[in-house]
Design a protein that fits this description.
single chain; 7-stranded mixed beta sheet; 22 helices; alpha+beta; globular; two-stranded antiparallel ribbon
Length: 510
């Protein structure tokens, strides 16, 4: 086994049988996987980064904003991409091409061929050339303020009406323009990547706003949850899909093939939404662990040496990582449907399974706490906890939020100091998740997602993620959101009424 290449783990996968004998055994990690952190490409083959870059339509191996194929930097020292210079003749030809794509009927074969040529040109271009193309697109599609003449006695109402009419006409042309690309064989994946570029450059190119908005609206229809397909991802899945899983994981980095093998073992599940026209590209995926009790820390869940759970005795399904994979689908909501569909799937496989919860990060906690002045800290903690906090002589009499973050991230030796640290940290986290709002919604993005699904803030977990990322964003804390299928609608209504659904343990911290 040790002499076999790493990809042998894909071509000869370990069985994922749910038999009692496998459930009681140790995790079976092939030696060739355990001893290698990542596949090493041979000199004659492109690297993983290069292959993914080619799939995403980038001309060079550097990807967006990186070096082009020739190895020359496409950007200055500040990391901003500088647009390439188009000749007057090339720009005029591009404008004619875009005008044809905008104005012609969807059945016009010449316009469709022009759209195909533009798509090919954009995909093969370097980042600086793509930005130059986007500048022209923004100018052609965004010139909505050229309407109307001089205002007369009727004031400015007439020019405004004219501009509105022109905007409506251009909107229709823009939609037809985008539908033309969607009708091409590889048009939908291209549009997803293209919108990601639009979002990236939208601030610098205001003319892209209308086109990007139209595309986002179309995506809400084209990626309707009724059109998406839910599929499991297993160790038997193609190696190219497993590579994408490693690349897209956004919550807890997958550090090696052994780590991935552990996450796809027989006591784990991974599900993803796919679009029929993008069958090799997961749109969003969730990782699930089966455990006897509600998980309190991520380290035990990701422990590669832990024994397999007996699936006949597990009581909890823990969603410990949910990752969106496509920046171009920002604003298209299907994550809430994913969890509900997965719960339905798990009910089919495990009819006796009744408990569903997450083990989630609190990504905005530290930034929020750092922003609090001393008066804000005092108001949040209240007089009783402030009196307890005053017992720690390492803190100033009136500590600011930034000082509290540093204190919570420290590692005191005395047990009494640890207990005080935990009590204050959990109280602050409970307040942040339950009461901090932005425009009427929970301030924390993960809380906003799960509470918006009808989940309940069930428990704050101290020192649940001691990685650098976990310590930085939430002082090592994580939270369980409980999904009770019969209570989801009532919890969602409670959130709409301005009150988050809380478990007893969290309510006691407030």
């Amino acid at each position: 086994m040790k002499d076999e290449p790493i990809l042998s783990a894909m071509t000869a996968p370990v069985s994922l049988s749910l038999s009692a004998s496998s459930a009681s055994s140790e995790r079976t990690t092939p030696e060739s996987v355990a001893d290698v952190s990542a596949p090493v490409p041979s000199p004659s083959k492109p690297s993983l980064k290069a292959r993914l870059g080619q799939w995403f339509g980038r001309g060079g191996a550097g990807g967006p904003g990186g070096p082009g194929e020739g190895g020359k930097p496409e950007s200055k020292g500040d990391g901003k991409v500088e647009p390439a210079k188009l000749s007057a003749r090339a720009e005029a030809a591009l404008r004619r091409q875009l005008a044809q794509c905008l104005s012609a009927r969807l059945t016009d074969s010449a316009a469709n061929e022009a759209a195909r040529d533009f798509m090919t040109r954009y995909c093969e271009a370097s980042p600086s050339e793509q930005l130059a193309l986007l500048q022209v697109v923004a100018d052609v599609c965004g010139s909505t303020d050229s309407a109307g003449g001089e205002g007369g006695k009727d004031g400015e109402a007439a020019p405004k009406r004219a501009a509105s009419g022109l905007a409506g006409a251009l909107g229709s042309e823009r939609v037809r323009f985008l539908k033309r690309f969607n009708a091409l064989p590889d048009g939908l994946p291209f549009l997803v990547r293209w919108r990601a570029d639009m979002l990236h450059h939208r601030a610098a190119l205001p003319g892209l706003a209308a086109l990007e908005d139209d595309l986002g609206s179309l995506f809400s229809t084209w990626f309707d949850v009724g059109l998406l397909e839910l599929h499991p991802i297993t160790w038997d899945s193609p190696a190219s899909l497993l590579e994408k899983l490693m690349r897209y994981e956004a919550v807890h980095e997958i550090s090696s093939w052994a780590d991935l093998r552990n996450r796809l073992d027989s006591d784990r599940r991974c599900y993803a939404f796919f679009h029929p026209r993008m069958p090799r590209e997961p749109l969003i995926f969730v990782e699930v662990a089966f455990v006897p009790d509600m998980a309190a820390d991520v380290h035990s869940l990701l422990d590669e040496k832990a024994p397999l759970e007996d699936l006949r005795r597990v009581r909890w399904a823990i969603f410990y990582s949910i990752s969106n994979t496509q920046p171009g689908l920002r604003g298209v909501s299907f994550g809430n449907f994913l969890l509900k569909r997965v719960i339905d799937e798990l009910h089919v496989d495990f009819p006796k399974l009744r408990n569903f919860a997450t083990l989630s990060p609190i990504p905005g906690f530290s930034d929020w706490l750092k922003s609090l002045p001393a008066t804000g800290v005092a108001q949040t903690l209240g007089p009783k906890r402030l009196k307890l906090l005053a017992q720690d002589t390492s803190l100033a009499a009136e500590a600011t939020g930034a000082q509290l973050v540093a204190w919570l991230q420290a590692s005191p030796e005395r047990k009494s100091a640890l207990a005080l640290q935990r009590a204050i940290g959990e109280a602050l986290a409970a307040h942040y998740l339950a009461r901090e709002r932005v425009r009427g919604q929970p301030r924390d993005p993960v809380a906003r997602f799960h509470l918006g699904n009808g989940a309940r803030v069930e428990r704050i977990n101290w020192h649940a993620d001691l990685s650098k990322k976990g310590a930085k964003q939430s002082c090592g804390m994580m939270v369980n959101y409980l999904y009770e299928p019969d209570e989801l609608d009532a919890n969602l209504q409670r959130l709409i009424d301005g009150e988050a659904a809380l478990g007893r343990a969290v309510s006691r911290l407030l």
